[in-house]
Amino acid sequence: MLEIENNLHANFGYLFEDELIAEIQEVGVHKTIKKDQAIMEIGSYIKFMPLLLDGAIKILREDKNGDELVLYYLEKGDTCAMTLSCCLGETKSKIRAIAETDVNLIMVPKEKMSDWLGKYSSWQAFILGSYHNRVDELLEAVDTIAFLKMDERLFKYLKDKAMVNHNDVISITHQEISEDLHTSRVVISRLLKKLENDEKIQLFRNSIKVLEL
User: Fold this and answer.
1) CA dist 130 to 110, 184, 209, Å?
2) CATH of domain 149-210
3) Distance between CA atoms of 213 and 209, rounded to whole angstroms?
4) What CA–CA distance (Å, rounded) separates 73 from 203?
5) How far apart (Å, rounded) are the C-alpha atoms in residues 68 and 21?
6) Sheet containing strand 169-171, strands side by side
7) Is 62 exposed, middle or buried (0-12, 13-18, 19+ CB in 10 A)?
8) Which CATH superfamily is domain 2-146 in?
9) Phi, psi (degrees; rounded to nearest 5) at 101
């Protein structure tokens, strides 16, 4: 419990009042999620809002054929503000959340989310700031798809993945990249080779080293 309290203060103490930190600790459920495990599924009703203490989470959208596209990443100190609107409106989730790394988080019951909006100005500012950040990231994702060539999209994807993992060596297969970017493995393999020839990355078996961050 002391470690959780310390993590809460380290990640959110500069944002939240001590009283709010104490409430989060009292009602929140601590969870540890292993890498690649699902945290939230498309079509599920959301009863908790995650506060990320450590690690990174990948947020994906799925088309009608079941193909996925990475929208953005959450890192420690973040939350997924989309869950708040789903909870308040009691609508089903339109996104999938997958642990990009091993993750520690606090799950806040939905009943407390709206209560704290009126009770704590810091919580209101945090939620509005989270919405703003997620909208910016969604616009960036749209711009990336609409305006960047596939090799530029690929290199941005690799850099983003390296940064959220805090490691310039990414353990990933060409197939996994193609699924995240909603394209074919053949295209990804060809473009990765091009990036290597341009000395932006180094290719290894099931891993990639990003040389330009």
Assistant:
1) 16, 33, 31
2) 1.10.10.10
3) 10
4) 23
5) 36
6) 169-171, 207-210, 201-204
7) middle
8) Jelly Rolls (2.60.120.10)
9) -130, 180
Tokens of 65: 């054929």
Angle formed at CA 138 by CA 200 and CA 163, multiple of 5 degrees:
35
pLDDT of residue 37: 95
Is 174 within 8 Å of 185 (Cβ atoms)?
yes
| Unique residue bearing structure tokens 């989309």 | 82
Question: Predicted confidence band at 2 (pLDDT cuts at 50, 70, 90)?
Answer: low
**In the predicted structure, residue 150 carries a pLDDT above the cut 70:** yes
For the chain, the structural domain boundaries read 2-146, 149-210
Do 61 and 94 form a contact (C-beta atoms < 8 A)? Answer: yes
Structure tokens of 185?
Answer: 């493995």
* 93, 65 Cβ separation under 8 angstroms: no
Which string of DSSP letters, residue by residue, matches 59-113?
EEEE-TTS-EEEEEEEETT-B-THHHHHHHHT-B--SEEEESS-EEEEEEEHHHH
